[in-house]
C-alpha cells in the first residue's frame, strides 16, 4: 500500500517535472535562433560569462550597458514570463514596463514569429546558465535618460508587423516569392538584423527605409552598400560567393570581414546551416539597387610599388618626406601583403588591390589601427593591430598612418590620396567623429526635445479625448 502510494507520488512528480521543462528539441531550436540573433555578442562583457551582460555599447548619445539575460531570478530575466520576454524582444518593453533603448535591436526582432519567440524563451529559461551578478546601470544624459521618450519614437518607427505572420504558411504570404526567399527575408530582417548596420540612419536615428542596406557608418567601420547595384553594391557577387562570405568572412580578390562584421560572422553567421545561409543570399541578391558614384570597389587598383625610391637611402631619411608612406608600408605591411600588395597565392594574406576595404577610408584606417580578428570553422584569421602600441619604438603616429593609407590608396585603390592625420585621430577615438555622427548627435539632442514634445502632444490629445 505504502509502496503504491510512493510510486504514485513519484509518477506524479515526474509528470510535473516533464510538464515544467520543455523538450530538448525546443530548447535546441531556441539555441540556434539565439545564435542566429547574436544575442551573445552584445550581452557578454569582454571575458565575462555568456549572456551575463555588462558590455558597454557606445551610441551617439552616450554609453548603453547591456543587461544580464541569464535566468538568474535576482539579476537576470529568471522572473520574466513568456509574454514579458516577448515584449522585450519585439516591442522594446522590459518587465517593469519601462522602454528599452533601440541599442537592443527589437526593431529587427519585431518580425520574429510567436513560435520562434517561444523557442527562444525555452532556451533562455532552461539552456542558459544563470549568473547571479548585476550589470552596471545605463546612465544617459538628459533628455535621453527619460526612457518614456522612446514611446513616441516607437510609435513612429517600430514596425511590429511580422514579415510572415506565424499563422500564415510562408509561400502564401507573398505570392510570387519562393519559400526560400521568404525564409531569407525573415532571417535577414529579423534574427540576423543586417539592416541595423547596413542601412543609414536619419535625423532621429531611425533606419532610412528608402536607403535600405545602402551602406552606413557603424563606429569606426563602414558597413558597405549590399544592394544589388552592380557598381555600388554587391550585384557583381554570385549567390555562392555571398554564402561563402557569410560562412568564412572572405572572398579572395574581393573582400574580407573585419570589425563588427567579423564578430557577426564568428559568433553567428558561420554557425548557421547551409540552407539558411543560402536563403539569406537568395533574398539579399534581390534587394532593390541603390546606386552610388564611381566604379565597383571590388575592381579597383593593381599590383605595384614605389619601394625602389627607398633604396640606398638611410631609413631615417625615408621616414620623413615624400617616401614616408612607402617606407611605413615596407617596414610594417609588405612581409604579409607582399612588396607589390599582391598578398599570398593561397589568399590567407589578401591582396590590397581588388579589395573592398582599401577603397573605404574608414575600413582602411580601422583595419590598420584595429587589425582583423575572426574565428570560424576554417580557423582563426588574425592581422595585428597597429594602433595600440603607443610606447613601442616602431609606434606609428597619425601622420605615419595617414602617409601609409595614402600610399595604399595611390598604389592599390582609387589612385587619389585623400586621408589626413585628423581622419586617423577620429578613427582612433573609436568612432567616426565625422559630420554624420556630429549631425546624429545634434539630431539626438534636438530629437530628444522633439520626442519630449511628442509625448506632451500625445498626452494632450489623450486629455482632450478624455474630456469629450
Ligand atoms: C546589438 C546588441 C544587442 C543584441 C544583438 C541583443 N541585445 Fe538584448 N539588449 C541590448 C541592450 C544594450 C539592452 C539594454 C537596453 C536598455 O537598457 O535600454 C538589452 C536588453 C535586453 C533585455 C531586457 C532585459 C532587462 O530586463 O533589462 C532582454 C530580455 C534582451 N535584451 C534579450 C535579448 C535577446 C534574447 C537577444 C537575442 C535574440 C538580444 N537581447 C540581442 C543589446 C542587444
Ligand atoms: C554588427 C554590424 C553588422 C551586421 C549585423 C551585419 N553587417 Fe555586414 N558588414 C558590416 C561591416 C562593418 C562590414 C565591413 C567589413 C570589412 O570590410 O571589414 C560589413 C561587410 C559586409 C559585406 C561585404 C561588403 C564589402 O564590400 O566588403 C557583406 C556582403 C555583408 N556585410 C553582408 C551582410 C549581411 C547579409 C548581413 C546579415 C545577414 C550583415 N552583413 C550583417 C557590419 C555588419
Ligand atoms: C602578420 C601578417 C600581417 C601584417 C604584418 C599585416 N597584415 Fe593586413 N591582413 C592580414 C590578414 C591575415 C588579413 C585578413 C585576411 C582575411 O580576412 O581573410 C589582413 C587584412 C588586411 C586588409 C583587409 C581588411 C578588411 O577589412 O577587408 C587590409 C586593408 C590590410 N590587411 C592592410 C594592412 C596594412 C596596411 C598593413 C601594414 C600596416 C598590414 N595589413 C599588415 C595579415 C597582415
Automatic annotation (TrEMBL):
Source species, domain of life: Bacteria
Binding site for heme c 3: 333, 336-337
Pfam families assigned to the protein according to its UniProt record, in alphabetical order: Cytochrom_C
GO MF annotations, alphabetized: electron transfer activity; heme binding; iron ion binding; oxidoreductase activity, acting on CH-OH group of donors
Domain Cytochrome c: 25-128, 179-288, 320-412
Reported cofactor(s): heme c
Subcellular location: Cell membrane
Record-listed heme c 2 binding positions: 194, 197-198
Extent of the signal sequence: 1-19
Keywords associated with the record: Cell membrane, Heme, Iron, Membrane, Metal-binding, Repeat, Signal, Transmembrane, Transmembrane helix
Cross-referenced PROSITE patterns: CYTC (PS51007)
Cofactor binding annotation: Binds 3 heme c groups covalently per subunit.
Record protein name field: C-type cytochrome
TM annotation in the entry: 436-459
GO cellular component, one term: plasma membrane
Species of origin: Duganella guangzhouensis
